[in-house]
From TrEMBL:
One of its GO terms (biological process) is DNA integration. One of its GO terms (molecular function) is nucleic acid binding. Residues 1-102 form the Integrase catalytic domain. Pfam families: rve. InterPro entries: Integrase_cat-core (IPR001584), Retrovirus_Pol_polyprotein (IPR050951), RNaseH-like_sf (IPR012337), RNaseH_sf (IPR036397). PANTHER family: PROTEIN CBG26694, PROTEIN NYNRIN-LIKE. This is Integrase catalytic domain-containing protein.
Length: 102
């Protein structure tokens, strides 16, 4: 099984939508191969991020390290608790320097 050791997470949005349901995109990128998965989400919340990480977990297992920006979904205590409980080292990039996010 391929294991994602270093993963970059990004939330994009709001984006124009014809159906007004999914206006954000949650991306999961393997930092080594740059292979990226895109998931439409209804809101940029910590719970949406956790749900998509759990989906990735069923396929690849937990990453050793997650790199994110300092968006509210990734700084929420709910997200921090999830990472801690799953043994994931969560790194947050410096504000204003997006190139640090993969």
């Amino acid at each position: 099984m391929f294991h994602l050791t270093h993963t970059v997470l990004i939330l994009f949005g709001p984006l124009p939508s014809t159906n007004k349901i999914y206006q954000h995109i949650f991306t999961v990128m393997d930092a080594f191969t740059k292979f990226t998965w895109f998931y439409p989400v209804k809101s940029p919340s910590a719970q949406e991020a956790i749900d998509k990480l759990k989906l990735e977990q069923t396929i690849f297992g937990n990453p050793s390290r997650i790199i994110t920006d300092r968006g509210s979904a990734f700084t929420a205590s709910e997200f921090e608790t999830y990472c801690s409980d799953e043994g994931i080292h969560h790194l947050k990039i410096t504000t204003g320097i997006p190139r640090g996010n993969g």
